[in-house]
Amino acid sequence: MSATEKGTFTRILLKLSGEALKGSTPYGIDPEIVKTVAGDIAQVQKAGVELGVVIGGGNIFRGLSDNAQGMDRSSADHIGMLATVMNSLALQDSLEKLGVPTRVQSAIPMHQIAEPYIRRRAIRHLEKKRVVIFAAGTGNPFFSTDTAAALRASEINADLIMKATKVDGVYDKDPKKYPDAVRFDTLTYQEVLDRKLAVMDLTAITLCMDNNLPITVFDIHEPGNIINAARGAQTGTFIRG
C-alpha cells in the first residue's frame, strides 16, 4: 500500500509522547500505562505490521522547559535524550514480558543497554517482525523527538507515522483552554503549516511533506486506538498531502 492511501499499513512508525507515559502521576513512568501501551503494540505486531517506535522524554526531562532552569541548550537536550532511553527500556521490558521480540537502538552509543542506530540493521529487525524502539532522538541537540520520528520513519520507508498523544486529534486551538475548539478530521501538510497548528514542529512536518509521509494523530489513552489507527480506521486527525 502506498504511503498516501488509507488502509492497512505494512510498516508504521509510532511516536509516543513521554508525557503520555506518566499517566496521572506528576513525574516519571506509570507502569500501568506502559503495560497498556505495550499490550496495544503487541496487537499491532501480532497483526503482522512492522513497527518502529520513537518515545519522547518529557515525563522525565525536557530541554525546552522549566526543568532546564537556564541550562545550556545543548546540555539540556542531551539530558532529554537520555530520558528517552529510560522510557525506551521501560517499554522494551513490558513488550518482552508479552513475548514481543524487541530491539532498542540508540542514536547515542551505549552498547551495554542498546544497539547503536544502524538503518539497515533496523530494517532487518523490522522484516523479522521485531519491534524496534529508536531512542535518544536524532542524537543531536536542537532537534525534537517529533523530528526524530519523521527522520526514522523516512529512513525505514514507513507507510505512516502514528502520533499518540493526550488529545484525540488536532484542533484549531487548545481544547483545554477553549471549549469552542474545533477538531479536524483531515488536514494537508500545508494547512498545518499555514495555520501554525501544534501537531509537530516545523522541521518534522516539512520532512513528512517532502517524503509524502502521512500522519495520524490520536488519543493514546482511548482503548484500541493504536491497533485501529494501524488498520487505517479514523481515530483522530489524518494528515496528508
Description:
The chain has 241 residues and is α/β, with parallel strands linked by helices. The protein has a single domain (11-168, 214-232), classed as 3-Layer(aba) Sandwich (Carbamate kinase), CATH 3.40.1160. It contains eight helices and eleven strands. The strands form two sheets. A nine-stranded mixed β-sheet has the order 4-3-5-2-1-6-10-11-9, sandwiched between helices. Strands 7-8 form a two-stranded antiparallel ribbon. Helix 2 (31-46) packs across helix 3 (73-97), helix 5 (145-155) packs parallel to helix 7 (202-210) and helix 6 (189-195) packs antiparallel against helix 7 (202-210). The longest helix has 25 residues, at 73-97.
Set down the secondary structure blueprint.
Blueprint: E1 11-16, H1 18-21, H2 31-46, E2 50-55, H3 73-97, E3 102-106, E4 115-116, H4 119-127, E5 131-135, H5 145-155, E6 160-165, E7 170-171, E8 183-184, E9 186-188, H6 189-195, H7 202-210, E10 215-219, H8 225-230, E11 237-240
Parallel strand pairs: 1-2, 1-6, 2-5, 3-4, 3-5, 6-10, 9-11
Antiparallel strand pairs: 7-8, 10-11
Q: Which class of secondary structure composition applies to the elements?
A: alpha/beta
**In this structure, how is the largest beta sheet organized?**
9 strands, mixed
Q: Report the CATH C-level class.
A: Alpha Beta
The order of strands across the largest sheet is 4-3-5-2-1-6-10-11-9
The poorly predicted ranges are 1-6
Integer tally of domains: 1
Order of helices and strands: EHHEHEEHEHEEEEHHEHE
- Helix segment tally: 8
Radius of gyration from CA coordinates: 17 Å
Share of residues in helices = 25-40%
Number of strand segments? 11
The N- to C-terminal Cα distance equals 16 Å
Task: Specify the overall morphology.
Answer: globular
What is the CATH topology classification name? Carbamate kinase
